[in-house]
Amino acid sequence: MDAGKHKKRKERARKIVAYLKKAYPKPKSELQYKTPFQFLVAVVLSAQCTDRVVNRVTAKLFKTYKKPSCFADAKSWVFEREISSVPFFRNKARHIMAAAEIVSRDFRGRVPHTAKELQTLPGVGYKTAHVILGELYDTWEGIATDTHVKRFAKRFDLTDNTELTKISKDLERLIPKKDWKYVNNGLILYGRYICPARPHECLDHPLTRLWPEAAKRWPKAR
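^ that's the sequence the OP posted. Answer follows.
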């Protein structure tokens, strides 16, 4: 990338983050949970699924399953049935139960505190690891890119990539580390409640006013 393009992207990212910091000053997931491992489970379940659906499933699920050992000891066919309303429930059930066993055995029942350790768990990739670290430990080692973050990164021309982790790395190069915490949560809430994915008139939306060219750009969310 030439220096001029990088400079423009960096300035655009600065303005976007300034808005997100003001609009969403305290990053907090809308996934509901009571224990750290329950949050890990909720994030795994949320892949290609809405938080609303996940919260409906976990409202009942988490009355029975609280600690990693509870998930590890579950009967697979029962657990699959209990989460069957989320997409890819069989794979997610297998990942969650395997992760629970590893956390119980290797981490004394505690959700790991680093991205490297988290990514050793089945079903936990770069995005999931950094969402968990931020929510549970207020640790921001990277920017988690989901469909909302990807969509806005493309709309505001902050990346040339389409793969989620590569987009994360592009954003991390543009945005100071002290501000990484505002990006994922802020863009999720902005995309959920202000500027949804379907094409619409959004010239008056706060972020579009910062860069009106975004009103003409409608990349696919996935």
